[in-house]
Amino acid sequence: MTQSFKKLRGLTGMHDVLPDQSAQWEQLEEIVRDWLASYGYRNMRTPILEHTQLFARGIGEVTDIVEKEMYSFTDSLNGDKLTMRPEFTAGIVRSAIEHNLLYERPQRIYSIGPVFRHERPQRGRYRQFHQIDVEALGFPGPDVDAEMIVMLDRLWQRLGLTDVRLEINSLGQSHERAAHREALIAYLEQHQDILDDDAKRRMYTNPLRVLDTKNPDLQEMADAAPRLFEFLGEESLAHYEGVCQRLDAMGIEYTLNPRMVRGLDYYNLTVFEWITDRLGAQGTVCGGGRYDGLFELLGGKSTPGIGFAIGMERLLELVQQQDILPNTAECDIYMVYQNDAGQQQAMVLAEQLRDAGLRVVVHAGPKSMRAQFRRADNSGALAAIILGQSELETQQASVKWLRAPALNDEQPQQEQVDFAQCAQFLKSRIGD
Ligand code: ATP
Ligand code: MG
């Protein structure tokens, strides 16, 4: 008797990217990497696991992420307290300090990969999701602030996205936030009776966070609260205006959203979000801002920094709506054959075609011609190459066109080509 095992499933809120979808992920990533390189950004990779303390200190103890969204655990082998990164910036800054990355010059850096937050799963909100994270380290701005926003605008253009709008705000400097904080606490005290538990708990520890509430019953109260923007001094306003002037000069539209605080504590001065109405409730595609205090907070020298993160799944959904990422085919050419001698010839010919840059699958599995042709068709290949007995005798392959562009009314559906000419012939018909 055979034993039967229960089927196992993946984790809630964590998704498999299957081969058909993966082609789109890779295509989007390629566009994104090209775009980043064109602005002088270089890739770096930091570990997914970091000490919990890094995020607690970096992101801020009294934030949604640190209070209730982190995947944290104690390493049972040595007692270390660890966290799966909920965002990139803290890890990148940790690494920059540790390796003295800014010793010679400021750095433009990016990273792409998974991040983890224990949130309630819904459309556009997952527990493992992916970010394109971009950081400009060591630049005081406001020129680089504007450059970052401009480059995002260019990315939307490259991807053909038209319905993404920009909101910006300034969070000023710490002394300005302190003055605002007092006014805000006084205001919140006047509205004690309507505050929810989160808001009551945070009003003395992190009152600004109360304004970031997602509770619809508190929106009106949050809308009418004293605004940090009104507490900004001359220097902060000049920085803000420096950003705006450059955006104006580059023809980029934006609105000031004085309520925007962002989900992490380390931000100062410029913060921004790109939002769309095309994704339902989770409409923020990209969020970012300046974090001039973060290096010091993590034990480094005072160093300015600014960065943003794009939610890859949300961006992909937007791009899919535009229908611009095609090609989930498994290969360009599928090779079928009649017998073992044909299979061996197919292996030789396939390597020549691959050397010429074609994607080739040599059939493996059921031997009937019918089954082989069905697989060829399902693979999405543009052509099948047939190696039967007569093809082996004449040393000519039969090329059967399966799809456009080479399958069309002007050309025969099947053609004979010398083995030695095969690669060149296929390339000339298919194009690049
Ligand atoms: P939100 O207000 O939607 O929770 P956030 O302020 O927490 O966003 P950031 O920390 O700025 O988000 O992350 C940058 C981007 O990552 C967001 O703009 C969004 O596109 C994406 N993102 C954030 N949380 C999730 C999630 N749980 N699932 C999928 N994408 C997410
Ligand atoms: Mg969030």
List the helices and strands and how they pair.
Layout: H1 19-37, E1 42-43, E2 49-51, H2 52-59, H3 64-69, E3 72-74, E4 81-84, H4 89-98, E5 107-116, E6 128-137, H5 143-158, E7 164-170, H6 174-190, H7 197-205, H8 207-210, H9 219-223, H10 234-249, E8 255-256, E9 268-276, E10 284-290, H11 294-297, E11 305-311, H12 312-322, E12 333-337, H13 340-355, E13 360-362, H14 369-378, E14 383-387, H15 389-394, E15 396-401, E16 414-418, H16 422-430
Parallel strand pairs: 1-5, 7-8, 12-13, 12-14
Antiparallel strand pairs: 2-4, 3-4, 5-6, 6-11, 7-9, 9-10, 10-11, 14-15, 15-16
Q: State the end-to-end CA separation.
A: 55 Å
Q: Could you state the CATH homologous superfamily of the largest domain?
A: Bira Bifunctional Protein, Domain 2
| Strands in their spatial order, largest beta sheet | 1-5-6-11-10-9-7-8
**CATH class division of the largest domain:** Alpha Beta
Number of domains: 2
Number-wise, the strands total: 16
State the CATH architecture of the largest domain.
Answer: 2-Layer Sandwich
Shape: elongated
Give average pLDDT, whole number. Answer: 93
Low-confidence stretches: none
Question: What is the tally of helical segments?
Answer: 16
Alpha-carbon Rg, integer: 28 Å
Percent helix range: 25-40%
Main sheet specs? 8 strands, mixed
The computed structural class is alpha+beta
Strand content: 15-25%
CATH topology of the largest domain: BirA Bifunctional Protein, domain 2
Bound molecules: adenosine-5'-triphosphate, magnesium ion
